[in-house]
Amino acid sequence: MYIMTFKRLFPLISALLWSIAPVGKTADYTEAAPANLPSGTPVENPDPARDCPSPAMSRLRRHTAAQGETIESIARQYNRPLAKVRSF
User: Is 75 helix (H, G, I), strand (E, B) or coil?
Assistant: First the structure.
């Protein structure tokens, strides 16, 4: 009995696999739009200015406390929980 070595067997198996593999065909893959995109937005043409939220640092507001203001009054002024205002 003749035993083929890996070096001789590999090209044979590779050729066999290549001969049965579909050529030029791609899988029918339809990708669903990510949850953060507005409905009807095509996935192929994303627009960062339209699809992405503004950066977090640009959404922060600066407040200079006036004399007599308290953390509680500032939180009420910006309609924020007191714990959030204290964290800054």
Answer: helix
Report pLDDT digits (tens) over 1-40. Answer: 466 676 777 888 888 777 776 666 555 555 665 666 666 6
pTM higher than the cut 0.85: no
At 74 the three-state DSSP class reads helix
- Write the single-letter amino acid at 43: V
Contacts of 42 (CB under 8 A, 6+ apart): 33
How many Cα atoms occupy the beta-carbon half-sphere of 46 within 13 Å?
Answer: 9
